[in-house]
Structures are given as structure tokens and as C-alpha cells.
Specification:
The complex is a heterodimer of chains A (about 80) and B (about 375). With about 80 residues, chain A is α+β, with helices and mostly antiparallel strands. Helices cover about 30% and strands about 30% of the residues of chain A. Chain A is globular, with a radius of gyration of 11 Å. In chain B, the strands form three sheets. A seven-stranded mixed beta sheet of chain B has the order 2-8-7-6-5-3-4, sandwiched between helices. A four-stranded antiparallel beta sheet of chain B has the order 9-10-13-12, covered by helices on one side. Chain B has two domains: about 1-10 and about 260-365, Alpha-Beta Complex (Aspartate Aminotransferase, domain 1); about 15-260, 3-Layer(aba) Sandwich (Aspartate Aminotransferase, domain 2), CATH 3.40.640. The chains are: A alpha+beta (about 80), B alpha/beta (about 375).
Chain lengths: ~80, ~375
């Protein structure tokens, strides 16, 4: 199973995103954003297939989903 | 010691508060500092606390609930965010030094909308007259920490909204005791301690934000770390440095207690205690009381004086007899100027006080020679 990471501007927003998605039946785990030690930020890790739905739900709720990383065959890749 | 000093801090807390604090000391990491289990557990704890406060005070968004050290810290951030040198700021006649001193430091031009205590119509009218076109901000103490008079924040909020003037509410004595709904009021900021009517520990406070903010402290936030400046988003923008996680865990249990007990139940209880205290003290010769018999005009604070006795001496003698009451100006000299007092003895309640304790206090006061 492949995973995707949605970055958020703050840890609080990532926790809020997780809660909103849980109400829509999408499970996620709050974790650090895997951007090579880039900028100390947090992400929601979820199943790749649910990424687009999750982003739509979050934008509709007024949140700010940021960069997305998807697990690829050769490691992580920004999308 | 019988505690009648809850306007300074509530001494009795729900048992869950101390338990949560003790648990936090060795089970919680630091939110925003790492992605390991204990850092994330701390973040969850902080988030649940923000959510509860957001729900209790009608904020609508947990990110706009900022953790502070106390109400003074929260007010300093709020005032710094709204006021520059020479700005006209209208304040009520019952503001604490936590408002007056930051305003003086910021170089504000302070206009006092003064009205006698327990006359909310006069207080609203004083604001109506003082809120001129030049006014940049209004600040209202919801409940005076000296006299317990409830200020008409709904009416003052409406006046400010009509004129497009941001306003700050100091909810130090009212949070957890009177209903407060940030979104309905449209306040720029509401500041409150965690350790009074919210039954959290000392070292906690909350700032509810509805306005652009200017940080008081700069430092690590666990986010946007490459920037030399504080993040633009809340709550990180205003929360530099490590959080007080034992305090936040305790505050969360205090908020749960308030939520489960119900603000209306707490208010009824404190109002009943206040009414009973006023009745008892009124019957003692030589006692001057500041109180109102009109419903809804006073909450759990009652100031009094024994004729011919320095209030500090009265409080000292009561302390010797096992009663904790505060005397003096209560860090609010403006309130005394407004009400024409030179200092008082202050009796203040929490939901844990009993009518029997008031009987004991009245007995002690009668026996003071």
C-alpha cells in the first residue's frame, strides 16, 4: 500500500485536518513532513488513493493543505 | 484556611487537574518539537485543550486559541497588536493595571468611559459618548475584580461594531462564570486567565484572537523554521518557545469541569453565595458594602470595609482567624477612582465555596473588636 503526505503550515492545522477527515471516514496520521529536513513542518500521512478526496474536503473546510509527497517506487516524490 | 480569594486564583481545583499535571510531567514531550510519539501526544493534549476553549467561547477555530502565561500576558499581546503611540483608546472605569500599564507603555492616549458600578446603562452610555471617530480601540473589563460589577459587553460590542472600532474584552473574572461568545460579540481579542474561573493551574492563560496579531516574543515555534521571523499563522505566531504542557494538561481538565458543570450552574451558585454574603454582612454594624440587589449586575466578588479600620488590617485579622481575603487596591486603582473608594477588603468566590463558610466568616467579623 502506498502513502501520501499532505503538508500543513502548523501542527495545529494538521491535527485539525486529521479530525475533519476522520469525520469523512478518511484515516490519517500526523507526522513530520518528509522534505529532507527542509523547514520543520508537519503532515498528514494517508493512503495515496484518498489523497485527492482529502485535499478537496480540507479546502472546502477552509484549511490550507500545502505541498504533497507521494511514496514512489524509488522513494518519495513531491507532486 | 477558608479560601475567599478566587478573584486572585481559585485554590480548590477539580482533582483531575493535579492528576493530569502530574501525568504530563513524565508522559508528554514538547508539541512541534519532533515527530515521535511523546511529542505528538503533547500536541494532541494541547489541541484538545484549544478545541474545548474554542467551543466554550464560540471562537469557531481552535487555531485562534493561543496559550499564554496568564491574562496579563494575553492582554499585552492583544494591546500591542492594536495600539501605537498617540492612539486614542477608550477603556472602562474598571480596568486593571494589566490594561493600564501596557497602554501607558505603548504611548496610547487613554480616555476613560467612567460610570458608577452596577449601572450598566450608564456604562454603555459613557462608551457611546467616548467612542469618537478618532478612537482606535476600546477595552472593557467584563467583570470588575474589585466590585464584581458586570459590564454591558453586549451593548458596548454593538457600539464598537457600528463604528468599526476593534475592542478587547478582559474576561479575567468572567471566563467560566458568565457566558461569552466571541463570534457573536465580534471582539478583536478576549483575554482570560486559566487559573481562576477555568480552574486550571497558575501559569496558564488564553488569548482568543479575531484580529491581526503582533508577537510579544520571538523564537522557536516548531514551524517555518528557515524564516528569521515568527510565522504569519496562529497559534504558532504567538507561541514562541516551549509550551507549559503540565499547565495545559491541567487547564484542559479545568475546562472539562466547567463544561460538564455548566457555566450557568456555576454562575447561579456564585450569585447565590454573593447574595447570601451580602445579606450576612449587611446585618453587621459598621460594615460598608459595595453590592447590587438587581439581578445580573454582580458576580462572585464583594468588596467591603469596616468603618474606621484600614482594609489591610481587617484582612490580616481575618487571616489570623483562618480566612483568606485580599485587601487594598487589587491592582486596579482606576476602579477605586471610578467608584470613589480608597481600597477595600475583597471577598471572592468559586463554585467550591459553601454557605457554611460564609456563616463562619460573618461570625468572625462580628467578633472582631
Amino acid at each position: 500500500m502506498k502513502y501520501a503526505y499532505i503538508g500543513f503550515r502548523s501542527l495545529t492545522e494538521a491535527l485539525r485536518a486529521r479530525e475533519i477527515l476522520e469525520r469523512r471516514g478518511i484515516s490519517g496520521r500526523v507526522t513530520r513532513f518528509p522534505n529532507g529536513g527542509g523547514n520543520c513542518s508537519y503532515a498528514l500521512k494517508l493512503i495515496k488513493n484518498e489523497l485527492e478526496t482529502a485535499k478537496r474536503v480540507l479546502r472546502a473546510a477552509g484549511l490550507h493543505p500545502g505541498k504533497t509527497v507521494v511514496e514512489g517506487e524509488g522513494g518519495h516524490g513531491l507532486v | 484556611m477558608v479560601w475567599f480569594d478566587s478573584a486572585a486564583t481559585t485554590l480548590q481545583k477539580p482533582r483531575s487537574v493535579a492528576r493530569a499535571m502530574a501525568g504530563a510531567v513524565d508522559t508528554l514531550g514538547s508539541p512541534g518539537r519532533g515527530g515521535h510519539t511523546l511529542a505528538l501526544r503533547a500536541a494532541e493534549e494541547a489541541y484538545e485543550c484549544r478545541k474545548l476553549a474554542s467551543s466554550l467561547f464560540g471562537v469557531g477555530d481552535p487555531e485562534r486559541v493561543v496559550f499564554c502565561l496568564n491574562a496579563t500576558h494575553a492582554l499585552n499581546i492583544a494591546l500591542r497588536s492594536c495600539v501605537g503611540p498617540g492612539d486614542r483608546v477608550v477603556i472602562s472605569g474598571y480596568e486593571h493595571n494589566a490594561v493600564l500599564r501596557p497602554l501607558a507603555f505603548l504611548g496610547a492616549e487613554i480616555a476613560v468611559a467612567a460610570a458608577p458600578p452596577f449601572e450598566p446603562e450608564a456604562a454603555a452610555e459613557a462608551f457611546r459618548l467616548a467612542l469618537t471617530e478618532e478612537t482606535k480601540l476600546a477595552v472593557v473589563n467584563h467583570v470588575s475584580n474589585v466590585f464584581g460589577n458586570v459590564q454591558p459587553i453586549g451593548e458596548i460590542a454593538a457600539l464598537c461594531r457600528e463604528r468599526g472600532i476593534p475592542f478587547i474584552i478582559d474576561a479575567s473574572q468572567s471566563a467560566g462564570v458568565l457566558p461569552i461568545h466571541m463570534a457573536e460579540l465580534g471582539a478583536a481579542f478576549i483575554a482570560m486567565p486559566g487559573h481562576k474561573g477555568l480552574y486550571g493551574p497558575q501559569g496558564t492563560g488564553l488569548l482568543l484572537c479575531g484580529h491581526e496579531t503582533v508577537p510579544l516574543l520571538q523564537g522557536g515555534s516548531g514551524s517555518d523554521s528557515r524564516s528569521r521571523f515568527m510565522p504569519a499563522f496562529l497559534p504558532d505566531r504567538l507561541e514562541a518557545g516551549t509550551h507549559n504542557m503540565p499547565g495545559i494538561a491541567g487547564l484542559r481538565r479545568g475546562l472539562i469541569f466547567v463544561n460538564e458543570t455548566g457555566v450557568e450552574t456555576i454562575c447561579r451558585r456564585e450569585t447565590a453565595l454573593l447574595g447570601y454574603a451580602a445579606e450576612l454582612l449587611r446585618d453587621i454594624p459598621g460594615i460598608r458594602l459595595w453590592t447590587s440587589s438587581e439581578p445580573g449586575r454582580q458576580t462572585g466578588v464583594l468588596s467591603f470595609l469596616r468603618e474606621g479600620e484600614d482594609p489591610e488590617l481587617t484582612a490580616e485579622r481575618l487571616s489570623d482567624r483562618g480566612f483568606a481575603l485580599r485587601a487594598g487596591l487589587h491592582c486596579a486603582p482606576l476602579a477605586h477612582e471610578t467608584a470613589g473608594s480608597g481600597g477595600t477588603v475583597r471577598l471572592s468566590f468559586s463554585v467550591f465555596n459553601t454557605f457554611g463558610e460564609l456563616d463562619q466568616l460573618a461570625g468572625a467579623l462580628k467578633n472582631l473588636s
